[in-house]
Amino acid sequence: MSSTTREVVLGIGAGIAAYKSCDVLRRLQERGYCVTVVPTPSSLNFVGSATWEALSGRPVKTQVWQNVDEVPHISMADNTDFFLIAPATADLIARIAHGRADDLLSALILASDVPKLIVPAMHPKMWNNAATVDNVATLRARGFIVMEPDTGRLTGSDSGQGRFPETSAIIESFDAITGNLQDLKGKRLLITGGGTREPIDPVRFIGNSSSGKQARALALAALRRGATVHLIAAHMDTSGLGDVSITPVQTALEMGDVLNKEFAACDVLIMCAAVADARPVQQSTGKIKKSNLTSIQLQENPDLLAGLGTLKKDQIMIGFAAETSDLVESARSKLLAKGLDIIYVNDVSNGAIFGKDSTQGMILTRTHSDIALKEVSKDALANILLDHAVRQLG
């Protein structure tokens, strides 16, 4: 099993409903799952590998004969936390029920003992056929979760039970299986996001390239998991955050004032904002003429994290580090010096990460259980970090 508890195999059966699983894939990614798509060879007649690779950002394999040296049906099974097979045709259900392993998907299922959700989609006559009824009963008896298909219009003029369920119902069922529900209920999360700006004059400032996208992902993920969320937002998009409480700030000092006021009441602090290290000694009330803008005298901003570390009681503190060299060493030093429990560090050389929808880096903890993350969505990272927070909260 993977160390992130978010690795999902999305299995695709050879039914016309395969195209609907493109939306299922997107919704899984939005909820922070890391998804590898494994289609059956026949399903590629409906949706091709190029589509799945483009949407998932990962290679797509269908046969155990691909990359044989990696023994994919074992290595992938060992690194998968959950299976979602959608759509599951009558043929695929039959092969799984009888322990067949004649393609990569069926071999993976046979080699894995993690939770599996099967979403049938087929003609009503096939769904109600005695063979399918028996196969579904067999799978349920073995611990598979098999959804009931919806009733409604199918291909052509046919109608009845066998329709692919709505994406929202599939995701709700999958969340129930994975435990991705309300595990932060009753907890208060304080999150900082965006980038502070230190005014030089009315039109210029000292700032950084942080977009606040990671803080948005964290706030939404925590909200979905039942937390009360307070976001201290510095120059970032805060639209569409629902019930998240938002305090906008401009500068490092303003952010520090809000943090000092709210920190004692939170259970988890996530310092995701890029805070300016220094500010001008003097701020001009009028625009400085270009000819006079020859030098700026700076003074150091207070270290917000280090200050909060001295006030820490039972809170879990998560920090971020953006580095261009010596990533792990720099992050480990920051983790210890600032009283953090968890830190995420990434390499921002050449403008990487800032403003992007994906990220890659390292998660470090005080127990030295470091986790290297290859490119994942910021939604996925948000949930991985929250998983760690939940564990440390007990």
UniProtKB/TrEMBL annotation:
<dbReference type="InterPro" id="IPR035929">
    <property type="entry name" value="CoaB-like_sf"/>
</dbReference>
<dbReference type="GO" id="GO:0015937">
    <property type="term" value="P:coenzyme A biosynthetic process"/>
</dbReference>
<keyword id="KW-0210">Decarboxylase</keyword>
<dbReference type="GO" id="GO:0004632">
    <property type="term" value="F:phosphopantothenate--cysteine ligase activity"/>
</dbReference>
<protein>
    <submittedName>
        <fullName>Unannotated protein</fullName>
    </submittedName>
</protein>
<dbReference type="InterPro" id="IPR005252">
    <property type="entry name" value="CoaBC"/>
</dbReference>
<dbReference type="GO" id="GO:0071513">
    <property type="term" value="C:phosphopantothenoylcysteine decarboxylase complex"/>
</dbReference>
<dbReference type="GO" id="GO:0004633">
    <property type="term" value="F:phosphopantothenoylcysteine decarboxylase activity"/>
</dbReference>
<dbReference type="InterPro" id="IPR003382">
    <property type="entry name" value="Flavoprotein"/>
</dbReference>
<dbReference type="Pfam" id="PF02441">
    <property type="entry name" value="Flavoprotein"/>
</dbReference>
<dbReference type="InterPro" id="IPR007085">
    <property type="entry name" value="DNA/pantothenate-metab_flavo_C"/>
</dbReference>
<dbReference type="GO" id="GO:0010181">
    <property type="term" value="F:FMN binding"/>
</dbReference>
<dbReference type="InterPro" id="IPR036551">
    <property type="entry name" value="Flavin_trans-like"/>
</dbReference>
<feature type="domain" description="DNA/pantothenate metabolism flavoprotein C-terminal">
    <location>
        <begin position="184"/>
        <end position="390"/>
    </location>
</feature>
<feature type="domain" description="Flavoprotein">
    <location>
        <begin position="7"/>
        <end position="172"/>
    </location>
</feature>
<dbReference type="GO" id="GO:0015941">
    <property type="term" value="P:pantothenate catabolic process"/>
</dbReference>
<dbReference type="Pfam" id="PF04127">
    <property type="entry name" value="DFP"/>
</dbReference>
<keyword id="KW-0456">Lyase</keyword>
